[in-house]
Amino acid sequence: MINRILEFSLRQRPLVLLGALALLLAGLWFVNRLPIDAVPDITSTQVQINTEVKNLAPEEIEKLVTFPIEMEMSGIPGAREMRSLSKFGLSQITIVFEDSADIYRARQLVAERLANAAESLPPDSRPSSPPSPPVSAKSTTTLSITNTTPPD
């Protein structure tokens, strides 16, 4: 079988070269039309809430800031995972949504619940409205809460 293919290829060189050229041109044409990024976005849909609170220890931040926000965010539709980190002067909560979740809907749900949680936060911390993500940021949004009182 392979001998016949080789014999045909050697006898019909112009036809084989024309076929190879056609495959090459078709491949180049299709490569230019593929919707592929140089680095594909494999991140999950997530919204991050950062709260800056000065003059509080990590234990106090966990109790007064992180825990109330986590309780308000629990049960949010489409949320798959919630993780938090409390450090000196910073509370960070990341809510990971299902892959099929719309980032704008997720941001809206988090912003609505964050407004409810703001009432129970320390008085020198207040939630800021979520920023609009840039066009290239398909699935990650960061919310920030900043301290409005100057440090002593």
TrEMBL record:
GO CC annotation terms, alphabetical = plasma membrane
Q: Which GO terms describe its molecular function?
A: xenobiotic transmembrane transporter activity
Q: Which Pfam families match?
A: ACR_tran (PF00873)
- Listed Pro residues bias regions: 124-134
Under InterPro entries, the record lists: Acrflvin-R (IPR001036)
Location of region: Disordered? 117-152
Check the record and name the SUPFAM superfamilies matching this protein.
Multidrug efflux transporter AcrB pore domain, PN1, PN2, PC1 and PC2 subdomains (SSF82693)
Q: Where do Low complexity bias regions lie? A: 135-152
PANTHER family referenced in this protein's UniProt entry, alphabetically: CATION EFFLUX SYSTEM (ACRB_ACRD_ACRF FAMILY) (PTHR32063:SF24), PTHR32063
Q: What is this protein called?
A: CusA/CzcA family heavy metal efflux RND transporter
Organism equals Ereboglobus luteus
